[in-house]
Amino acid sequence: MCKHILNAQVAIRAPCCKKWYDCPECHEEKADHPLKKSYEMVFACKKCKKVFRKDTREYEEADEYCPHCDNHYVIPAKTPELRIEVEGEQGDHRMIRDERDPDRARRADNSIFGNGQIGFLNK
């Protein structure tokens, strides 16, 4: 399981040691040697478990998919970070700002007791 690429769809065989890693950073952490650079990459799809080769010099948009099962393995890179977001189909100002009346709750409490005082009334 790769901690650098969330939802990694392929494993990559390192050309230097012929071992499988999820990303170059995983190789750097676990191997005792630098990663050898190569134009020909060997991938193993994690969906269909089949191996295939790609030449990065002739890489096209169609090469973002496994040739055996059409699994889309090239995912846009994102740096994992903690944050709070509002999810919605279309963002608008109502999703960001609370437009409810802030004095409404206070007025409701006052109307229950009449004069706004809490406790027993002396007659």
UniProtKB/TrEMBL annotation:
GO BP, sorted A to Z: protein import into mitochondrial intermembrane space
Membrane spanning residue stretches: none
The keyword Metal-binding is assigned to this record: yes
GO cellular component: mitochondrial intermembrane space
Disordered: annotated segments: 90-109
Domain CHY-type, residue spans: 1-71
InterPro entries: Mito_Tim_assembly_helper, Znf_CHY, Znf_CHY_sf
UniProt keyword Metal-binding present: yes
Keywords: Metal-binding, Zinc, Zinc-finger
GO molecular function (one): zinc ion binding
Protein name: CHY zinc finger domain-containing protein
